[in-house]
Amino acid sequence: MIEILITMAGIIGAGKSSLTEILAKELGSTPYFEPVKDNPVLPLFYKGNEIAARKRKEGNKDATNPYAFLLQIYFLNKRFAMIKKAMQDDNNVLDRSIYEDAIFMKMNADEGNATPIEWNVYESLLDNMMEELPYAAHKKRPDLMVMIDVSYQTMINRIKKRGRKFEQVEVDPSLEQYYKKLLRYYADWRDNYDQSDLLVVNGDKYDFIGNRDDRNIVLDDIEERLVELGHLSTEEYLKIKSRRE
Q1: What is the spatial distance between Cα 136 and Cα 134, in angstroms, rounded to a whole number?
Q2: In what order do the strands lie in the sheet with 92-94?
Q3: pLDDT tens-digit series, residues 44-83
Q4: What are phi and psi of 145, to 5 degrees?
Q5: Domain boundaries, the chain
Q6: Are 105 and 17 within 8 A, CB to CB?
Q7: If you placed Cys at 10, which of 14, 50, 122, 176 could pair as Cys (CB 3.0 to 4.6 Å)?
Q8: In angstroms, rounded to a whole number, what is the distance separating the alpha carbons of residues 80 and 8?
Q9: What is the sign, positive or negative, of the torsion defined by CA atoms of 237, 82, 10, 212?
């Protein structure tokens, strides 16, 4: 029986949920998806960003997004519960995890959308959660972190395609600057991630959603890495690969 825990990472619109679904089906595992549709804070956060940016432009340099801290605590709680549950089982793929959570709060603090006090409270809570996580499950960390790396244009194309109004640059032009900065924070996170083995997928080069050949290349890369790490046998990999050919 395959016993693998895979976590996904990547910016908004990178294709994390799609690749999670594809990979879970490939490995016969359980996919875990972060709730977005039923998130009552997310639309408020985007509106708060717009309001804060306008106030700073008008001269209020201390204007913050009143929903930044609330949103991040909401996500942190959901991500902690999700990975804790996944780590108690044997074969799961998560479309986002607690390991990239701090990217957003750090950026909001740096940009003035959250206060230094809010950042300190958040960081302390996250540290406490990470210390407790190994005691809450028999797995101590993911077997593999898969990051989907995309450019701004690829990101925007996918955001347009999925059609969430509050994510669209056309609706809120300030999102262009927000997204481009977030890409830089993700690049820094990628270069410094050390919680588990990391595999970076080139989301610009490989259309794993719409192109079958590209999808197979990405799946092979992930599964071959799992074989190298000892989480998947060569026999299991060849058997899985033969089912899609």
Answers
A1: 6
A2: 30-32, 92-94, 5-9, 144-149, 198-202
A3: 888 887 888 788 888 887 788 889 999 999 999 999 998 8
A4: -100, 125
A5: 5-243
A6: no
A7: 14
A8: 15
A9: positive
Contact residues for 185 (Cβ-Cβ < 8 A; gap 6+): 103, 106, 107
User: What CATH number is given for 5-243 in this structure?
Assistant: 3.40.50.300
Annotated catalytic, 95? yes
Each residue's pLDDT tens digit, 119-155: 999 999 999 999 888 776 667 789 999 999 999 999 9
Distance, in Å, from the CA atom of 60 to the CA atom of 54, rounded to the nearest integer, reads: 9
Print burial letters for 147-161: b (CB count within 10 Å at least 16), e (below 16).
bbbbeeebbbebbee
Give CA–CA dist 211/21, Å, rounded: 15
- Active-site residue, from 38, 89, 90, 95: 95
First vs last C-alpha separation in the chain: 22
